[in-house]
Amino acid sequence: MKLKIGLAGVDQVCFTGDKGAVYNRAKTGLKKLAERTGFELYCVEDTIITRSQAEKVAGEMKAEGVDFVLVQNSSFAAGETILPFAGLKLPMGLWAVPEPASKGLLPLNSFCGLNMYASITVNYLKEHDIKYKWFFGHPEDEQFVKRLSITVKALTAAKRLRNSRIAHVGGIAPGFNDLYYDERLIEKRFGIDIQRLHEYAELRDMAVSYADEEIAEYIEKSSRGYRASCASKDEMNMSARFLKAYDDFAAQNNYDAVAISCWPKIQSDFGLCSCHTIARLNELGVPAACEGDIPGAVGMLLLKYISDDKETTLMDLVAYDKGDETLQFWHCGPTTPSFAGQDGVELMTLEEDTASGGKRYLKYIHDMTFKPGDATVLCLANEFKSAFILNGRFIDGSKDKFRGSAGWLGELKLNGESAAAEDVVNTILVQGISHHYPIVYGDYGDILRELCVWLDMSLIDKIPYRDFVQRPSYR
Prior knowledge:
By secondary structure, the chain is of the alpha/beta class. The protein has helices at about 20-35, 50-65, 85, 110-125, 140-160, 185-190, 200-210, 215-225, 235-250, 265-270, 275-285, 295-305, 420-430, 445-455; strands at about 5-10, 40-45, 70-75, 90-95, 130-135, 165-170, 195-200, 230, 255-260, 290, 310-320, 325-330, 345-355, 360-370, 375-380, 385-395, 405-415, 415-420, 435-440, 460. It has 14 helices and 20 strands.
């Protein structure tokens, strides 16, 4: 599902520079960028001078299904020529190029045209709240390529979200009230279709219905790559059945992600938990959020889309260390093996005490320490009006962690600015951020922050730690 960019050039007769050459350079360069970056390009053949020409071209772009309108000031142009493009109510790029000469007659006055168009959009058209991004340079310039690449990734993710479906299976885990959501708000913000009426029994019945030969492939997928495993043959067989069931369920219903209520029913029925299944499902390319977390599933899907379909995971924040400014992200064991460091993954049973004084056994979880590397953490907050965007780097495995899937994240940056661990924790707690954190390897902070602009979402700013009580509006 590629982004479609519509390119138009505008100019004015009185400027003596070679406007046609400027625009042709833009078309040629953007065609090459489209091949490299993965977007479609619809080009207007000639530059535009009059409003009537602009209206005609805007109509053609609408008919073509353009997602992003890029208007180049091939020279300074009449202010009214931007109005039809702004009227499309699409994300818009306003583009100027460097002057071909530094003295004598001003050849193009391109930058001034960009300035005027930005001012018209912000001020004259202020009631329309039209969003735009400015660009400067030629298509081969490093800054131009970087800025446009970020926009392409952000808007491509938004387009994919608008065509996505997520299934909620079995409801929210008991007591996890911070995971409640309103699917209407998700649909309004992202365009995602949420289906919330599926029950655990549907997947259970699918899992037990398969013949043994049907699950052979999934037993192999479920068993490979462990440095150690305590799983019995029968229990691995059942876990593989659930993996196939969820994989088939997603494919048959065109679901792009799932939120699974991973306890307590499956434990009661089979003595298993869903950690292993969820980890392997993510490995197969279906983002799977545990404990019925639909907002978490949306965040995981979003991270998948902006990262060229990398695997994601969903973590709790369980500790912070002021000594080395790190945070420990952990969960029972639902993380795909691709996150593991040099010690690999052990498939193991996690033993927990119960309130009655007995024991609870979580079969089976992925015990691993995350590999070193840059990572992006995202949490959608305030009924999807805001985003908590944290970047950092997972350290090596030299530091103690809790059993399960876990890693210590350091070199913390909140909204691109360095942040102390305690300030990050304070921000989370004062803002009341949900306790689940989608994570992907790689630094995608700039893309996420741009996407928030296009989607009308605010960024959650750092609230520095203080000893007195704090609220988001009183720091």
